[in-house]
Amino acid sequence: MATIREISEKANVSIATVSKVLNGKGSVNEKTRQTVLQVARQLNYRPNLNARNLKSGQSRTIGIITEDLTVFNAPEIVDGIAAACDEAGYHYILGNLRFYKRYGNGQKDLKESNALVHAAVNGMLSKQVDGIIYIGCHSHIVVSLSEHTEPKFVCAYCISKDENIPSVIYNDEKAAYDLTEILLNYGDRRIGMITGPLDSSHTANRTRGHQRALFDHGVPYDPCLTFVGDWERDSGYALAEKLIAAGVTAIFAHNDLMAVGVLDYCNEKRINVGRDLRLIGFDDREVASVCRPRLSTAAPPLFEIGQAAAREMLSILAGNKASEQNIMLDCSIIERESTLGSKP
Amino acid sequence: MATIREISEKANVSIATVSKVLNGKGSVNEKTRQTVLQVARQLNYRPNLNARNLKSGQSRTIGIITEDLTVFNAPEIVDGIAAACDEAGYHYILGNLRFYKRYGNGQKDLKESNALVHAAVNGMLSKQVDGIIYIGCHSHIVVSLSEHTEPKFVCAYCISKDENIPSVIYNDEKAAYDLTEILLNYGDRRIGMITGPLDSSHTANRTRGHQRALFDHGVPYDPCLTFVGDWERDSGYALAEKLIAAGVTAIFAHNDLMAVGVLDYCNEKRINVGRDLRLIGFDDREVASVCRPRLSTAAPPLFEIGQAAAREMLSILAGNKASEQNIMLDCSIIERESTLGSKP
DNA sequence: ATATGAAAGTTAAACGTTTTCCTAACTCTG
DNA sequence: CAGAGTTAGGAAAACGTTTAACTTTCATAT
Fold it and tell me: Buried-most residue among A124, A261, B78, B162 (CB within 10 A)?
């Protein structure tokens, strides 16, 4: 690999001059500038970032830690971060904890997972990152991050328990509100809801949004039309029966998978979803546009979450204060045949 | 950030000694070793990799370039690479070209995309990576990589046009053979096939595997039972009609999406897939386990491809010769209700 | 003619490591 | 006790940059 010194020799100038040309700093004669540039190109010169970063003491790099690149919507978020970094001339490095592959969903060993996060953070600090963005949903892990006070942290897709770490999340409640409003605008008054487990903050937020929409439209909330699911398809199937028996004209399921379960039930019972029953899910996973009728749902702004997290980080690194509030982005509301009726 | 020098001062030894302790090289008295270690821990010391890599001239890092992290099965492959790297104590950095987001599937501007790849490669070389793994499916781009001869290259998920670049791919033909054999073992003799477009190597390979299986089982191949699709659901739907009219008892679609199209047709016509007609797809995308009946299909070994690519790279970096042949991994054959009949 | 200052370059130190070579002290061996 | 070998540790150079401080040159203003 060609170095700055080789260029300086070939071009008959000092290495300082070469450095100036390459960085566009200081004043150098246009002719020498051209010569240097030409020699550099000819030698196929590429700066050694290790040397540059070492000397200048800054890497213009942010670290991204994902709990698991292959679950959740991590790739989209990483993509958003990457886009924002590219735009700003920053670099990024990825650390993939491979959490779920390692432990399954059970997270059997908290100690071990903490160690994993610590190791990843330390590794990134060794690489002199300016800040770290954490993508995941386990705030108990995130908390352990804050012990390391040196670099800047930002959480994406989760709320950090630590007040000092800004978080970028999506607005569950508003999306649930908007989805419910779709149903209300169609005239539905008896709307069933299948929630996620009660210990999930998503469940709480989505329920709140739903109730608020009902309230704003003067429709009383009937607790008998709400059942608690477990995010899985089967629970959607099972609860669909109860809700339909209760005479609902629409169902809002807290995720697409449970909505598909409802769909299964309706298909079996020859209930025409979209006409006789309106159905709404949440998440916009692939299944939502693959099932028939396709599901109306809310798509979390994953790319934008990544982008916003990166921008927040860059802003902090530029010396600005971190946002006081968590940054909350809106979901896209996607209406499909499950509320529209069959394809036009 | 604490440095080696600070440790040396606190511990009253030279920096050389500290370095030796930290790297476990040279001989140092057990007592001083402990002191140094303790001071290091106390100062929360983390080695500066920029300095280390600069001095030692090697980074133990490989670069990963993905055409687009959010399409294809890139995340799984990256995951496999990451796992192999972790295992070997190597680092990796990710470069996401965001190809499809930028250009859509059309790749309107080859010049520009080449520039993109070059920039990514140059960036990685600046970071002193020892080698680069390219994940994607556009060999024309990969070819442009080989102009850069300095680092080692490995292709994952695609075959490089350049003979010198080893590639890790999955065995399309064998998977198609095995899938067809499932049908043959059920006694199917009139098997319809819906292929991908004719200019795809997948189409050629899968067709070959299919024909070979028929041949080995003494079943003549009937060209009238093969139709060319376009990977999309609608083509599966349309061609299902023709094949069923032709009296097939089973259909092998070259991907899951077209198979789901077949399923749509069958559901509409009340043909019981799994009992009256056996159906097989390819790819094991999410849809395959979401549709009803669930699809029998072949799952490309994505994680393993990443892992193998990384291992090949590490082997090359260790001084071994690159594999003569492309490395070909088998798909997992997954049998579900679309060939098994309804759920037990 | 002299002073001022900008322009164009250079010198050399520094960033935090690793590593080669060196020295001193000790322990064997015969 | 001399020589050899081992152990423990240190001094200093080097990796490829950036950058502060400096020098030289030359145009311009007084």
Answer: B78
pLDDT of A107 > 60? The answer is no
Q: Which residues pair with A131 in a beta bridge?
A: A62, A152
Amino acid at A333: I
Residue B64 near residue B135, CB atoms below 8 Å: yes
Chain B residues close to A119, C-beta within 8 Å: none
What is the pLDDT, as a whole number, of residue B71? 80
| CB atoms B150 and A1 under 8 Å | yes
CB A127 within 8 A of CB B49: yes
- Which pair of structure tokens corresponds to residue A60? 């213009």
Please report, for residues B9, B246, B306, the alpha-carbon distance to residue B12 in angstroms, rounded to integers and kept in the order given: 5, 88, 47
A1 touches strand D (CB under 7 A): yes
Residue A122 corresponds to which tokens in the numbers above?
Answer: 């330390």
Model pLDDT for residues A283-320, shown as the tens digit of each residue? 999 899 989 899 999 999 999 999 999 999 999 999 89
* Structure-block tokens of residue A289: 């546009």
Sheet (strand A152-156) strand order: A91-96, A61-66, A131-135, A152-156, A167-170, A327-329
- Per-residue pLDDT of B184-227, as tens digits, reads 999 999 999 999 999 999 999 999 999 999 999 999 999 999 99
Nearest to B127, CA basis, from A61, A4, A81, A38: A61
Which two structure tokens, joined as six digits, stand for A166?
Answer: 């800004």
Dig out the tokens for B72 from the structure. Answer: 């294809």
Nearest C-alpha neighbor of B48 from the set A149, A125, A116: A125
Max avg pLDDT among A110-119, A148-157, A188-197: A188-197
d(CA A157, CA A283): 13
| CA separation for the pair A78, B176 (Å, rounded) | 34
d(CA A266, CA A273): 7
- Per DSSP, B240 falls in state H
Q: Cβ–Cβ of A126/B53 closer than 8 Å?
A: no
